[in-house]
Amino acid sequence: MSDASQFQSHHHNSSDARVSRNENSEDEPEEFRVRVSSDDKSTVDIESENEHRPRKRDTEKFPVSDSKSLLMEFDEYVASERNTGVTDLGYGFEVGDLVWGKVKSHPWWPGHIYNEAFASASVRRARREGHVLVAFFGDSSYGWFEPEELIPFEENFAEKSQQTYSRTFIKAVEEAVDEASRRRGLGLACKCRNPNNFQATRVKGYYSVDVLDYEPGGFYSDSQIRKARDSFIPIETLDFVRECWQCE
């Protein structure tokens, strides 16, 4: 990478200060941009263009192939790829999972397990053995955690989403709910409206996916896409959305 991101280094774990920098790296994917901060959370600030805010947008219609669905073509392409298997990080977690993480006196905070391949070199150098990288919602920060320090997002939503009414926390929860909803829609995403959907990224096994009614260009692994399709159950999706609205 040219013009590698420069970070001012502190301690990089779930109980110390955080690492930050002043300028964005031009070489990082547009989806993620890092910025400076310095409070007592063990995190690295990150400004994300993929904050998953719903936005209605015009979509050009394309005809569906008569001989073979474009969705099947994507599935066959993914199946032909090598070394894209799911890695169990321990405690049932995988890269991309939505989670809650706890840092010092802060409440449990919503985030997602972040693929290190998308992070800057200095963030990767801060890695500790047995720890995973978590990108938090709301305050746009990173933190290195042991899997045992994290808990699943949806299963603990009713309890953890009510911890405090601070604006930053509420914003974080809203962004997390937005991403959870987007991932529900991921199960219905296809190439029928946009033949260029599911474009491969520079990280093997990851694709840029447009989900209808959301900002375009979210990055998802083939595992996340398959999981979204396999787990899509309309009544459960509706129940979760209702629960989210009742808690707000």
TrEMBL record:
GO BP annotations, alphabetical order: epigenetic regulation of gene expression; regulation of DNA-templated transcription; regulation of photoperiodism, flowering
PROSITE patterns, sorted: PWWP
Matches recorded under SMART domains: PWWP (SM00293)
Chain ranges of the PWWP domain: 95-156
SUPFAM superfamilies: Tudor/PWWP/MBT (SSF63748)
Pfam families the UniProt entry points to: PWWP (PF00855)
Stated family: Belongs to the PDP family.
Name under which the protein is recorded: PWWP domain-containing protein
Gene source species: Pisum sativum
Origin organism lineage: Eukaryota, Viridiplantae, Streptophyta, Embryophyta, Tracheophyta
